[in-house]
Amino acid sequence: MEMDENDLSRIIIGIAIELHKNIGPGLLESAYENALAFELRQKGLDVKQQQSVPFIYKDVRQDIGYRIDMLINNKVIVEVKSTEKLAPVHFAQVLTYLKLSGYKLGLLINFNAALLKGNIHRIVNNL
Question: Is 118 helix (H, G, I), strand (E, B) or coil?
């Protein structure tokens, strides 16, 4: 069954919340990223981690190290954070990744919080 971005985001958010309930805050981003990737793969989703995003300027492709934390089913970007507070630059980062890659939906998830629910943000690009 083909899932759209909204279907995928519901699954990702549900798994992220369950993961956070089990682990809690205080770990490194890489720990949350790998645990989330594991759980998403267990659900049968295609998960690419640290996916390179090229920067194209005036038709010149430049591979300068931009990396999406996770790309789910080639449709949804997930940017994992573990910080005291999200800053505007974190939201801009996800939107920029969406624009550079052409994907329509990104999830910005900050796992370093007592409650995860208010720390999951949907960012859209022409969805």
Answer: helix
Q: What is the CATH number of the domain that holds 68?
A: 3.40.1350
Beta strands (DSSP E) in the chain are 47-52, 55-57, 60-62, 67-72, 76-81, 105-110, 120-124
Low pLDDT (below 50) residues in the chain: none
89 sits in which H/E element: helix 88-101
Q: Number of structural domains, the chain? A: 1
| DSSP assignment of 5-40 | HHHHHHHHHHHHHHHHHHH-S-S-HHHHHHHHHHHH
* Residue span of the structural domain in which 31 resides: 5-124
| Alpha-carbon gap, residue 94 to 76, rounded angstroms | 11
Residue listed under structure tokens 């205080």:
26
